[in-house]
Structure formats: C-alpha cells, structure tokens
Amino acid sequence: MSLPAHVTSLYSEADIQKSLGELAPRLDAWAEEAEAETGRLLMVVCMLRGGVFFFGDLLLHMKKSVEPGFCRAWSYAKGLNGQPEDTVRMDWQDLIVKDRDVVLVDNICDSGRTLAVASDWLGVWGARQVRTAVIVHRLREDSRHTPTLAGFVYPGPEWLVGYGLRDSDSKLMNTRIIGFIPGTHH
Predict the structure, then answer these.
(1) What is the predicted pLDDT for the residue at 151?
(2) How many domains does the chain have?
(3) In a domain, 77, yes or no
(4) Cystine design at 115: which of 10, 55, 94, 145 (Cβ 3.0–4.6 Å)?
(5) Where in the chain does DSSP place strands (E)?
(6) Could you tell me the pTM of the whole model?
(7) Cβ 177 vs Cβ 163: under 8 Å
(8) Which domain holds residue 52?
C-alpha cells in the first residue's frame, strides 16, 4: 500500500530500511551484553498496536536472539488525533521482568508519556535495565521521555501517518512509508 496523494512522504521505505540496518546492531550489542551479564536473553517488548511493524522489522534485522514480549497501551482517545486520555492504560500480557534487561519498542515517542509510564512500571517490577527504541522521535518541549534509540528525529508539529502511525480512521497504518497530511498538527 502506498500513501494517497493528499499525504506528503517524509521517510521512504528505503529510508526506513537504512535506519533499521543502523539500529539493529545496537540492539544486537545490548542483547550480547544482557546475555553476558545476566545469562538471559534480552527481552524486547513491542508496544502494541502502532509499534508492531517497526518491532517485527527490527527483530528481523537483528543477528542475536531475543525474547519478544508484548504490551498493549492506550494513551490517546480513539478517533481523535493527538487528544490524550487522562491516564495511560497498559496490559502487560503477564510479562515477568524481574532482573531482566528490557527494551521497549514503539513506533513514535511524541509526548513520551507512554514510554515514561511503561519504563517506570518496569523499574517498579524489578527490571535490571530499561531502554527504549522508536522509529520516530518527535522533538517536543513538553516531552516526558527521550528514547535511547531513534531511527529518525522529527522537529515538526504535523501528525505523522504510515508504518504503524495512524490517521484518524487507521487506514494508513500498514504502509512502509512515513508521511504527514499537510495542515494537520499534533
């Protein structure tokens, strides 16, 4: 699926693939470190729904084995781009993280609220180390979290779509391109 004419392309499929090729070795190094220091595989947790495309592609680019995990998070009101809910809700799928090195993988760090709350919970539950990786880190003055790794850093206010980033009716999530709709802001 490609982006419709009313969407401006920001990062092409080739840009995303190049970024994945640069990020995967960093996670491979973390996986090697985790296994050497703890005797256990690095746990890499996908923040569902949006992070699923980046998560799958990133793991396929890695050379080291990791233990995948999943967390369903809700922080934005459904159907309202950029409208945060009062709280961040999470379903951790019965993950056990005590004494584990964990990497949270999401498609975007925007306000940083979801990744900040998730990182805090993992710390409370005894994770040894928590890192975060996103395909896009949107620079915002009010951000609550800076990801450990980011494929792209974007300073603009536009609402991004594609590659797991959704528009108001989720029709553009499953594209291999990241773009924005001119005139929309976060």
Answers:
(1) 98
(2) 1
(3) yes
(4) 145
(5) 8-11, 43-48, 67-76, 84-91, 101-109, 129-138, 149-154, 158-161, 178-185
(6) 0.89
(7) yes
(8) 13-158
- Tell me if 167 is assigned to some domain: no
Is the residue at 149 inside a domain?
A: yes
164 in any annotated domain: no
Closest CA to 143 of 103, 104, 106, 116: 116
80 C-beta neighbours (distance < 10 Å), count? 10
State residue 84's pLDDT score: 53
Measured distance CA(52)–CA(17) in Å, rounded: 15
Band of residue 170 on the pLDDT scale cut at 50, 70, 90:
low
The tokens for 161 are 């779509």
Q: What is the mean pLDDT of residues 16-25?
A: 98
- The confidence band for 48, taking pLDDT boundaries of 50, 70 and 90, is confident
105: Cβ contacts below 8 Å, ≥ 6 apart? 44, 45, 46, 47, 51, 54, 55, 58, 132, 133, 134
Helix (H) or strand (E) holding 60: helix 52-61
CB atoms within 10 A of CB 17: 13
Amino acid identity at 116: A
**Any idea what the CATH number is for the domain that residue 18 is in?**
3.40.50.2020
